[in-house]
Amino acid sequence: MNPKEEKMKIITEEFIENDEDADVGRQKKTSKVQRQKRKKQLLTAGPQEMVSEKAHLGSRQEPGQQDLDTDTRLLSMPTRRGPRSLPPIPSASRTGFAEFSMRERMREKLQAARSKAESALLQEVPTPRPRRLRSPSEKEVETEFGTEPSREIQRTQQEDDSQSYSRVKFRDSVRKSKSKPPVPPGFPSAEEAYNFFTFNFDPEPEESEEKTKAKNRDGAHQEEEEGEEEEPRVQEGVNKTDEEELDGKDAMDFLLGLDRGAEDTVAVRPADYESVHVRLQMEKELLFIPSRRTVPMYKKLPENAQPRFLEDEGLYIGARPEVPCTNQNIMENRLLTQDPGRGWFGDDGRILALPNPIKPFPSRPPVLTQEQDIKTELETLYKKAVKYVYSSQHMIGYGDPPGSFQLDIDISGLIFTHHPCFSREHVLAAKLAQLYDQYLARRQRNKAKFLTDKLHALRNAVQMSLNPAKTPKSLNTTRKAINEYKSEIRQTRKLRDTEQEKDRTLLKTIIKVWKEMKSLREFQRFTNTPLKLVLRKEKVDQKADEEAYEAEIQAEISELLEEHREEYDQRMDGYRSAHQQWKAWKKAQRAKKKRKKQAVEEHSNEEMEEPYPGEDPVKPVPPEPTDRAVIERQVRERAAQSRRRPGEPMLVPELSLAGSVTPNDQCPRVEVSRREDVKRRSVYLKVLFNDKEVSRTDSRPLGADFRVHFGQIFNLQIFNWPESLTLQVYETVGHSGTTLLAEVFLPVPETTIVTGRAPLEEIEFSSNQHVTLDHEGVGSGVPFSFEADGSNQLILMTSGKVSNSVSWATGENGIPLIPPLSQQNIGFRSALKRADAISSIGTSGLTDMKKLAKWAAESKLDPNDPNNAPLMQLILVATSGESYVPDFFRLEQLQQEFNFVSDEELNRSRRFRLLCLRSQEVPEFRNYKQIPVYDREIMEKVFQDYEKRLQDRNVIETKDHIDTHRATVAKYLQQVRESVINRFLIAKHHFLLADLIVEEEVPNISILGLRLFKLAEQKRPLRPRRKGRKKVTAQNLSDGDIKLLVNIIRAYDIPVRKPTASKFQQPSRSSRNFSEKHAASPTTHSPTHSADYPLGQVLVRPFVEVSFQRTICHTTTAEGPNPSWNEELELPFRAPNGDYSTTSLQSVKDDVFINIFDEVLYDVLEDDRERGSGIHTRIERHWLGCVKIPFSTIYFQAKIDGTFKIDIPPVLLGYSKERSVIVERGFDSVRSLSEGSYITLFITMEPQLVPGESVREKFDSQEDEKLLQATEKFQAECALKFPNRQCLTTVIDLSGKTVFITRYLKPLNPPQELLSAYPNNPQATAELVARYVSLIPFLPDTVSFAGLCDLWSTSDQFLDLLAGDEEEHAVLLCNYFLSLGKKAWLVMGNAIPEGPTAYVLTREQSHYLIWNPCSGHFYGQFDTFCPLKSVGCLIGPDNIWFNIQRYDSPLRINFDVTKPKLWKSFFSRSLPYPGLSSVQPEELVYQRTDKTAAAELQDRIEKILKEKIMDWRPRHLTRWNRYCTSTLRHFLPLLERSQGEDVEDNHRAELLKQLGDYRFSGFPLHMPYSELKPLIEAVYSTGVHNIDVPNVEFALAVYIHPYPKNVLSVWIYVASLIRNR
Amino acid sequence: MAAAGPSVFLLMVNGQVESAQFPEYDDLYCKYCFVYGQDWAPTAGLEEGISQITSKSQDVRQALVWNFPIDVTFKSTNPYGWPQIVLSVYGPDVFGNDVVRGYGAVHVPFSPGRHKRTIPMFVPESTSKLQKFTSWFMGRRPEYTDPKVVAQGEGREVTRVRSQGFVTLLFNVVTKDMRKLGYDTGPPDTQGVLGPSPPPGLPR
User: Fold this and answer.
1) Do A932 and B140 touch (CB under 8 A)?
2) What is the ipTM score, two decimals?
């Protein structure tokens, strides 16, 4: 509560009191009496009496109490305000004297009582006081003391009489009692008071007294509240606050005494209740709730003021901070209720606001390194000296060499027009000189003459135009012209008159001054100045002059007359009209008067008023006509004044310095001393450039004529734009010191002013110094007079002129050394300079300046906004046409400047080319490291490969591809590959968040549960699980880091040497095994064989050789047809070009060959006699079969674990299956057991590489959006249930579009040739078709398309390409089966070794068959050796079924897709099959393959292979057994026809027949034909060439069987023959 | 390329990861590695390093001081791909999980001499509030797949990061044969300035 408020309250209280006085004056008196009574009772009365007293008070309680309350209320005041010691001032309050005097009286009495009570209190208090000092809570209590009471009181009031609050009351009352003066600085704390009363309280009456007091206070507070409510009403009371305050204080004093006697005022009253309405009313009065409405404009502005919008006036107003409208309104309303509220509003009626200071964008705070700060403070830093740049100035041309600008300041001299040492004569002389100068200047201009001439001309013109005969123009125009001329004549005449007058007065003054000077010289009897005025009289022709004079006057008079006439006419016109009006009015008046008389009484009132709407028009007075004589007189007077009289000679003053100055010795003493003083003085000038002294002139003595000659030129080399050039005039008197006389400010020259052209200018200066001298000198700033009596005083200040010239210097070659930019428009000029750049850098809008200007005008761009300044300037420049803005647009306008060599040179640079190619990621250079610095270090051969490839792009290479069709296909494939790779390269640079940031997925409940479950998991479980190995990103790898681990465990059903041999023959003699009619040669008997023989065991000693990237490892030799090796082979892996990046690894095409050999020992001992002493055996190995696993499979599968069927050639000479159970060719499940040989393998890589993630580029699609959404949903659902099962709904076709998978399945006709082969045997046809499909070469997508992306080609594309992976094969096979009328599905699942793959499922009558499309083999559903290990989904031509069975092994699942519990179908009732059209062609067209081309190819392959074998045997002679070869060649077509079945025996027999005396080992290889390389590899891997028996012979036959559509089946029969001796 | 001594220049960097300012975290360690272009090859020294765990100093500065030395020498034929040092700072979170506290990168100074660099550090933000919470709760905050990402511009547009903390590095850079190959990286205006230069990339 501030004091003012308090005051107000006090006043209010007084007021109420007064009112009450008036109202219940009587009662009050009684109450006062009573009070006095009470006071007396105080000491004696007990509590009982108090009650009775109250009852007694009864009806008058209220006023009494109120009266009392006012006083008690006052009591609390000093506690808030602190002790005051103002002397009591006699009150002049409105309460009236009576009241005051009554109070006075009361006070006196109360004071007496108080002193008593005080003494009593002092007696009681002594002990607690010192304690207070120690009280820890004192502070707190004190604050409470200061602020709390009112609240406490409130509480007490509410609780009324409640005893429980007695303590509080005590406290309060004690406070009151203690707040008396005796305790000077502070007050007893409440705590203390409490203690006091609780501990030291003994007399009963005291307590009651306190109670009463408390009660009083309650009332008082209520009063206070009321007072507050009434506050607004009591404004007039303000002026008497002071008095009242004092009053209050006094009152308090006596009230303290009174309190003691207030015990009888305890009253029991009903609880106060204020109705809600009343309360609301009161609140309304008390509280102010600012409205949210918009404040009307007039309230916010000063009266009668219109809002002024500065923005509209073109002044810049910054953006105001954003404040919601309602808030603004509230604030405005609030402000308006305050008295000076309008001060907050601007001219526009809005609250004043500064522009929004908040930056529109956040910025990073500076580095918060405290310790650095400390360090940087301590550390000394070297800083180069910086050239001073004038802080507020723009440095001129940062790029320009400094100091190339020069300002020449030529100071030639100084003339004082007044100086303290001037004598009186000098003063006059100076004045004279000045006047003369003026005269000369005027004469030079000769304005009077000019004006006179003009006047004449005008007059002539008027004369001319007045003559109507001569003017062909219309009267109207002439009239107008004449009027104009006339007005001009008038003006000119006036001007001429004033000029002439001036000339004349000037001449007069000159003469007057000269006269004064002469008189002065005479008076002082010496001359100080050489000035001499000569008045030359020029004679004039008296007559002519007079005539001219007279003519002039006449002309003037006539003109004036004319003027006056015109004026008179006008006035006359005016008069006439006025007169008419007046007459009309008169008439009307008269008519009215008549009417009035007739008018009825009641109308009179109104009509009475009517005649007085305006004043009575005065009767106009006609203007006076002008009198010619008067005018003439005036003109003549004026002429006499301002003009030379006719005949009077013209006076021409001439000022010369011809006079002589009186020498010193003839002068009086004072004059001499003056002259000496002058001599002692010298003057110099300082030159200040930008307020810094740059140079100063020599100090030159002041001449007697007060002229100083300097004649110095200062060359200022400047850096900064000259802001100011100042000369300071310093005067030195003797040796005493220098004083600054004055400062002369020189204007900075225009840039056009260069040295040599600059005129000498005189610049005046003056000083305000006051100098009084003791000699003749008149001093400066002091009054002096020319008169002897000292009247007509004159005060002159030191002043003078500096003659100087400032100009820009010119350089040696004549170039002015002017800074190119003037400071004022420096930015603007530089903008000009860069106009070209701006127009090109800036957006297109800038190129068209007009458009820009238009836009600026339209968008009402504030031209005063500093933000827009550059733009506005640009527009200004552009529209004013000052600058040249090119109308062309240059993209890289600085490109030429930055070209440091020509383009040709750049292109010639090998290094640059290499860098370019590398950045383009051209495959040859993609990972090129360390491009040399110099061109000379780059070999030309670096580019050879690349250039060759570029050249070859269009040339079909026929060397590698023997078959031309293959070559074209290869080319096509290459192109597809390139386009896909390009797409991937682009896609590779598109990153997803997941590529960059590893983030945990938000766990769902199951994962969370699993995690929780894991917490409870045993740390060391009894059955530990295999943990995944750590994967390595292929980045920091190099050769030798990666190893291929091949664990060969065991094999089943290895072919054994011919069982016939087991009966009676050596098993190794395969040639013999065929028929028993050939006797075995004894040399072939070996000890091992003989050892085995008794057991009757057929022997085979197989071992496994693994070859990878031409590295070969092999296991030890095991024995028997079911060997177990359990050996781990380790093969190093080398990535191509040492590039271990993911893409590179993906495209590794190498295969891992796992070959099984039979080790055969031959005894080569020549002589049986040596058998005892030496063993001579030769180890031969016979190839039995192989398993081929592509590296890419290993790479993507990470490990390959399983049992594989060994690829055993159909004919294996000398070997047979041990248990060759000949079963009829049914599709029974038992059959498969003996079908082939198997090997169990585990292959992995160490360390495990992270396989490249598939490209998840979203390809565009032509599928229906709904379908796509459904596929996504379906896949998501499936993945949720069985994340490991493959679910495929959409695939990407060769053109890179997403296609729904069922569109690939459609019945397609197989070649007719195949169908007609077995017309009656559908099973055989199916097999043949499968074989046909398997003959199409296999090429994994990952190899062809680096980056894991599965592209599905349609069947015709597949057949054209003749290459594809499992999907294409499967699709084609499935389509064929469908066309054959089978029920066929595509099976997506996992197989070994392929991994995720596609198989074909067909439904036979009772069972299902699973077809491997790549090998052509088929398996029954329950075949344990079926490579398909899991089934993810089935795809039919019109639906997709996802496997939702518990198991996914084909052995354990039900293939009945009609059961929705087992198979989740994509198209169902809710989403019916929409009948998607197929992407497959209607029909496949098969061309017959050219047989001759096939034969040719066959020959070439044979030739090449033979050469290869010879190459592989560099140390041995390779003989070819032609006979055998031809035999084999005949045999091969047979094999093809029978598909390698059931021909073996016949074949053997035939062979034996023909090659009886040869030991023969060999086998046919069968492959689909794609390229030559795989054939070579296959032959190599058999190791046939490894035989190094000296007399070995070889046979090699190739047969190619052409199938339609260029599908070629290649048979290669390789054999080695050793002649038996 | 050319067998007989291809022209290279050498860049020797030693110095140390001096200290860090992570006002909220304690017990941090840092990893550094170098990212450089294809024409660069390290010839000596360590390309990568992992520091000890440091605790906050107990004074007002609350600095985390590692003083972890860096010493590596590169050879190169091309200033393109000038090495950058990539720093990643890790430390335990409330639950004791090791989480990333900041990534940052700065080029090795070009000019020979002593340089001090203060790198602002940042961490990738979670993609959603829920992710943020779970990552906080599980102690698996988002991290870059490869810290070297921060030295590259590619793909950064998909990430959102929050800045936290600074790391101060000291480099002593020596170059050899740069001038011979025509690259002048001599100290610019002020010869041999010792002391901190303002960190690059910070608003002045």
Assistant:
1) no
2) 0.80
